[in-house]
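$ ./design --mode recover --in tokens.txt
reading tokens...
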């Protein structure tokens, strides 16, 4: 199941019970300054699992097998600094991720305690890109399971997490597809999901992918992405694009966020 020949992977993550159907993974290689995507699939198709915990375990093992690849994943890698300091008693990101408290929490307890400490306060990187706070109603399960069940076991295998932990291969970084879409004049960053209209923004976004100079999606049928009305397939492709650009344009570990404990969006 290892794919060590991959250069870049983009993952649209989910903390839902049927995460295998919600998580999409885009795989690609880099050639002559272009990201060439070869696959875009649901996690259930790759790992033959649907329920979240078995899928998370297989996803961790798969990412760990990717050698020198760089993997961009769409969920918050951290929480507001006040939460890390007070709730997890951590003054660094690695300490925050490795605190034993994670083992005794469920997603709802995590959200409630975050709210008690900082209500809807966002991280610095969220404020820059107008993202939801990590413990918002919409994404708190992604945040919880992403940190506890994906990043924590990978960090303990000495995988690198940019820009906070420069360990070994592969390297993982946080993406935010909406912000990446907003950078492209031809793409819509809002209201491109969950539409039944045949001429909706999702369809137009997918059709516009071929006009992005540093991205080649020619091997992936438009219909495969458009038929996924939730936009998860498209988000995995955009996560891969942001990841490629983060590596191609600079060393992601040179990024110096104001609060390294919180994490950093690569868009």
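writing sequence...
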């Amino acid at each position: 199941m290892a794919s060590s020949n991959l250069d870049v992977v983009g993952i649209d993550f989910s903390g839902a019970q049927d995460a295998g159907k919600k998580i999409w993974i885009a795989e690609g290689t880099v050639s002559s300054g272009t990201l060439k995507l070869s696959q875009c699939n649901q996690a259930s198709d790759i790992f033959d699992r649907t329920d979240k915990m078995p899928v998370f375990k297989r996803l961790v093992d798969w990412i760990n097998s990717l050698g020198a690849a760089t993997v961009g994943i769409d969920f918050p890698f951290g929480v507001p600094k006040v939460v890390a300091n007070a709730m997890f008693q951590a003054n660094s990101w690695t300490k925050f991720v490795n605190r034993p408290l994670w083992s005794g929490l469920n997603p709802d307890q995590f959200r409630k305690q975050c709210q008690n400490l900082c209500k809807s306060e966002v991280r610095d990187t969220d404020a820059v890109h107008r993202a939801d706070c990590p413990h918002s109603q919409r994404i708190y399960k992604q945040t919880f399971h992403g940190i506890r069940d994906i990043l924590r076991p990978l960090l303990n295998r000495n995988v690198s997490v940019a820009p906070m932990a420069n360990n070994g291969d592969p390297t993982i970084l946080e993406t935010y597809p909406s912000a990446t879409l907003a950078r492209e004049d031809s793409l819509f960053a809002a209201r491109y999901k969950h539409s039944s209209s045949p001429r909706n923004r999702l369809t137009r976004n997918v059709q516009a992918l071929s006009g992005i100079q540093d991205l080649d999606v020619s091997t992936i049928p438009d219909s495969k992405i458009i038929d996924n009305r939730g936009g998860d397939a498209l988000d995995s492709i955009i996560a891969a694009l942001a990841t490629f650009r983060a590596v191609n344009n600079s060393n992601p570990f040179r990024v110096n966020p104001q609060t390294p404990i919180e994490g950093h969006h690569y868009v």
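exit 0
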